[in-house]
Design a protein that fits this description.
By secondary structure, this protein is of the alpha/beta class. The protein has 4 helices and 3 strands.
């Protein structure tokens, strides 16, 4: 859809991951079009923060989570202190 490295996570795979997010602050480090972000929001995550390197995909995420950066490998630890 967006490039050769775009692999959206299907809903049935997300459900099999066994994510316990209720009441938790969650980081989605490579959010893509937001399938996991959407699931986290619908399943009780306190906050969802995300990174996405692709500008078009990041625009899709806007308003659905806290976008804290484009490359999660470059996110500063200071930001992570907010969630401790």
């Amino acid at each position: 859809m967006f490039n050769a490295e775009f692999f959206p996570t299907p809903q049935n795979v997300i459900e099999q991951m066994g994510i316990d997010c209720h009441g938790k602050n969650v980081l989605e480090p490579s959010a893509g079009s937001g399938n996991i972000v959407e699931w986290l929001n619908a399943n009780g995550a306190k906050t969802v923060s995300a990174c996405e390197i692709n500008d078009k995909l990041r625009a899709i995420l806007n308003g659905r989570c806290n976008i804290i950066g484009h490359d999660f490998l470059k996110v500063k630890l200071i930001i992570l202190a907010i969630y401790s």
